[in-house]
Amino acid sequence: MKKLLKYLSPFAPDQSGACGVLYELGGIIVICDAGGCAGNICGFDEPRWFTSKSAVFSAGLRDMDAIMGRDDKLIEKLSKAQEQIGAKFSALVATPVPAVIGTDMKALKRMAEKKLGVPCISINAIGTKYYDVGEQEAWLQLFETFAGEADDRKDSVITDEKSAENTIKNTIGIIGATPFETGYSTDKPLKKYLEKAGYENSVIYTVGTTLEDIKLAGAREKNLVVSAAGIKAAEYLKEKFGTPYEVGFPFIPDEVINDAKNALGRILIIHSQFAANEMRNILLNSGDESNDKSDSSSAIDCATFFTLLPEYAEKGDIQLSGEDDLWELAAEGDYDLIIADADMERLVRAAGYKGEFVDFPHFAVSGKMNDDSVMFFTQMTE
C-alpha cells in the first residue's frame, strides 16, 4: 500500500513526460494505448494542448490488437498519418498496455523507420514511473538521433576546447525546461528569468524551438541543465561534441522567494531536485545574517518524490517514495516552514504540522501553471 494516495493527486507519469519533451518539434507522436492514456496526456498533463497544435495520436489498441500483437496494423496507421502530415520524425510512446504484453518497442521503431522513411524515437514508458523518467529517455534519444545532423553552421564561432567550426558563439542550450518542471508553457517568461540570471542568447530546447535547434545542439557554447532528467542528455552532448554544462534552476517565481526569504528556523523544500536546490541556495544567501540558516545547509532540507541524483544532493536531502514518507516528515521533522506545492498542504496539516507553508507550484504534482495559461487550463480541467 506504499503508493496509495489519500491526500495527493496522482503525479504525471512517464509517458506524459516523454510526450512533453517531443510536443513542439513537428513529429508524429503515437501513444500506444487504447485511448485512455492519450486522453489523460492531452486533457490534463499537457497545457500546450489548449493553445497550440501537435500531431498527437492514440494507437487505439483494441483487445485483439493487444492480445495478438498486431504491430503491422499500428505501422500502417502511422504510415497513413505520415502521408497526410509529412512529419519530420515519428515517436512511439509506450504505456501500461505494451508494457504488460511485452511489446518490442525497438522492433516497432525499426518497422516505422523502414515504412515511413524518417527517423523514429521509441520510448519504453510503463505508466507506473513518474514524468521525469520518461523525460530522461526522451531527452537522450532526441539528442542521440538528431544532434549534429545540421549541415549549416553559423558564421560567428569561437575557439576553445570545442572545435571552432562547430561552435556557435555566445549561445547556451537549456535542457529540461518543460512545463512539468517550470510551470510555464511558453518561452517568453522563461527567457525573462534566464536574462535576469545572466543567460543571454539562450535556446530553450523543446519550448518555443524547433527540430532544427535540436540538430544544432552540438554547436552550442554551453548547456544549462534545469532538471535531473536532462543530465544524461547533457553528458551525451559533452562526450559527443565537447559541450560543457552546468546545473541550475533560474525559474523560481518572485512571490515564492519573497514569501520565504526572511524565514527563520528549520525549513523543508519539496520540489524536483534542481528546483529545490536553487531555492535552498537563494535562502542561504538572503535574509537576516544572524539566522543560522546562513551558516549551514543543515537548517534547510530538500525532499523530492522524483529523481534524486547523489552527486547533486546535500547531506540530509530526502527521497520520498509515497505519502507516508511525507506524513512522517511533516509530523516528526520539527520544521518551522515547509515550501512545496499547495496541494501538499492538506497532507502536512493532517499530519500535525503547525508551521508556516509557502506555495511553490509544481505542475507535475498539481497541474497548476505559473503563466497566462493557468486560468484557461484550470477552467478546462475542473
Descriptive notes:
The chain has a five-stranded parallel beta sheet with strand order 11-10-9-12-13, with helices on one face. A four-stranded parallel beta sheet has the order 2-1-3-4, sandwiched between helices. The protein has a four-stranded parallel beta sheet with strand order 6-5-7-8, with helices on both faces. The protein starts with 13 loop residues before the first helix and ends with a helix. The protein is globular, with a radius of gyration of 21 Å. Helices cover 40% and strands 13% of the residues. Strand 1, helix 2 (36-45) and strand 2 (55-58) form a beta-alpha-beta unit. It is of the alpha/beta class. The protein contains 17 helices and 13 strands. It has helices at residues 14-22, 36-45, 63-68, 71-85, 96-101, 105-116, 131-146, 179-182, 187-196, 211-215, 231-241, 254-260, 273-284, 323-332, 345-350, 363-366, 373-381, and strands at 28-31, 55-58, 90-93, 120-123, 172-175, 202-204, 222-225, 245-247, 267-270, 300-304, 318-319, 337-340, 356-359. Residues 151-161, 293-297 and 373-382 have low confidence and may be disordered. The longest helix has 16 residues, at 131-146. The relative contact order is 0.13.
Write the layout of secondary structure elements.
Elements: H1 14-22, E1 28-31, H2 36-45, E2 55-58, H3 63-68, H4 71-85, E3 90-93, H5 96-101, H6 105-116, E4 120-123, H7 131-146, E5 172-175, H8 179-182, H9 187-196, E6 202-204, H10 211-215, E7 222-225, H11 231-241, E8 245-247, H12 254-260, E9 267-270, H13 273-284, E10 300-304, E11 318-319, H14 323-332, E12 337-340, H15 345-350, E13 356-359, H16 363-366, H17 373-381
Parallel strand pairs: 1-2, 1-3, 3-4, 5-6, 5-7, 7-8, 9-10, 9-12, 10-11, 12-13
